[in-house]
Specification:
1 helix, five-stranded antiparallel sheet, mainly beta, four-stranded antiparallel sheet
Length: 339
C-alpha cells in the first residue's frame, strides 16, 4: 500500500511539473518574459500626427496633427527625426520636436519619399537632401540630428538637386541627383562624394534610390520608367518586368533584404518573385495606395525571432507576417510614412 502511495505521489509530482512547464512555454516561447528586445515603430499620418508602437497593437501619439504630411522619418541614436516642411528633431523620446534644419528639399512633388533623409549606422551619420547652394545638395549630422554640416565633394562632381540616398549591404553609399540625372557614391563617412558614370544614360523620370542587398534600385515615381536595377553599382541598368506603367511607384523597399516590395498608387503592393513583380494584396482594400514600407522583428528570450513588414497606406497601417504575401489591418487611417 505504501509503495502504491509513493508511486501515486511521484506521478502527481511529474504531472504538476509538466503543467507548470506547459504554462511557462508555448510553441517554444518563454511566456514569462516573452520579448527580449521589442521593436519601435513610428507611423506618420497624412494629417500630420506621429504615432509610436512597440507591438503594432497599442499606439501612443507623439506629435499632434498640423496638416503637414510626413515625407521621411528616421531614428538616430536616442533621437527621432522627421521631415515635413522642415526637418524636426526630438531628443526626449518624442515629448518635444523642434526644427533642426530648414534648407530642405522643397515639399510637393519634389522628393515626396522616405530616402530624402537617410541614417547610415556604419557612417554614424544622418544624410539629408538640401537646397543650400553652398553645399551641393547634401548635409549630414554626426551628432544624431542636432547640428548639420555640408558634405565634401570631388572637384568635378556637379552635385545639387540631390533627392535620395541608399547604402548597399557592402557599405557603399549612393546619392542621386534627380535634377541632373546624376549618380554619386562614397565608401566611408570621411570620403568625398564622387560622380559615378554610367555606360548608358540613367533611366529618365522623377526617380529615387533604394537597394536590395547589393543590388542598386532606381524607381520612377511617376511610374513611366518603372523600377530599374543595377548589379554593377549603377554602371548599367535593367528594367524589372511586371509593374504597370500607369500608376505612381510611391515607395520601393527591401525589408532587411528579405524581399523587394513596391508600394503603388491605388494598386497596393507589388512583390518581386523570380525576377518579376506581381500583385500581392491579400487582405488589402481595393484602391489602396501604399506610401512607405519597413521591416521589424521581435526577438524572444529563447532566441526565436519573428519578422514583420509594415506598410503605411491610404486605408490604414497594415502588417504582414509572411514576407508580404498577405496583410492584416492594424490601425485604420491615412498614413504616409513609417519607420
Amino acid at each position: 500500500m505504501r509503495k502504491y502511495n509513493q508511486l501515486f505521489i511521484l506521478a502527481l509530482s511529474v504531472f504538476a511539473t509538466a503543467a507548470v512547464q506547459s504554462c511557462k512555454k508555448s510553441n517554444g516561447i518563454d511566456n514569462n518574459s516573452v520579448i527580449k528586445k521589442p521593436y519601435g515603430l513610428y507611423v506618420g499620418a497624412n494629417k500630420g500626427e506621429l504615432l509610436n508602437t512597440n507591438d503594432g497593437v497599442n499606439f501612443k501619439t507623439l506629435f499632434f496633427p498640423d496638416n503637414y504630411p510626413f515625407r521621411s522619418i528616421v531614428t538616430a541614436g536616442p533621437n527621432i527625426l522627421f521631415v515635413k516642411a522642415n526637418a524636426h528633431l526630438s531628443q526626449n523620446n518624442g515629448m518635444n520636436f523642434n526644427p533642426t534644419y530648414k534648407n530642405y528639399v522643397p515639399p510637393g512633388l519634389v522628393a515626396p519619399w522616405q530616402p530624402v533623409m537617410y541614417y547610415s549606422a556604419s557612417h554614424g551619420r544622418v544624410y539629408l537632401a538640401s537646397t543650400d547652394p553652398l553645399n551641393k545638395g547634401i548635409v549630414f549630422s554626426d551628432d544624431n540630428g542636432k547640428t548639420w554640416k555640408p558634405d565634401t565633394w570631388d572637384t568635378a562632381a556637379i552635385g545639387t538637386g540631390i533627392t535620395s540616398f541608399t547604402q548597399l549591404n557592402n557599405g557603399v553609399m549612393f546619392s542621386f541627383g534627380d535634377a541632373n540625372d546624376s549618380l554619386y557614391m562614397k565608401d566611408g563617412a570621411s570620403d568625398n562624394w564622387s560622380h559615378y558614370p554610367q555606360t548608358k544614360p540613367l533611366p529618365q523620370g522623377m526617380s529615387y534610390l533604394s537597394h536590395f542587398n547589393n543590388t542598386l534600385i532606381l524607381s520612377d515615381y511617376m511610374g513611366t520608367e518603372g523600377c530599374q536595377y543595377s548589379n554593377d553599382s549603377g554602371k548599367t541598368w535593367t528594367r524589372y518586368q511586371g509593374l504597370p506603367a500607369t500608376n505612381k511607384l510611391l515607395c520601393t523597399h527591401a525589408p532587411s533584404g528579405r524581399v523587394l516590395l513596391v508600394g503603388m498608387d491605388s494598386l497596393g503592393v507589388y512583390r518581386l518573385e523570380n525576377g518579376s513583380f506581381k500583385p500581392s494584396n491579400t487582405g488589402l482594400e481595393t484602391n489602396t495606395s501604399v506610401y512607405a514600407i519597413i521591416g521589424k522583428q521581435d526577438v524572444y528570450k529563447n532566441g526565436i525571432e519573428k519578422f514583420y513588414i509594415y506598410i503605411a497606406t491610404s486605408k490604414g497601417l497594415y502588417r504582414s507576417e509572411d514576407l508580404g504575401f498577405s496583410w492584416a489591418l492594424m490601425l485604420e487611417g491615412d498614413f504616409g510614412a513609417v519607420y
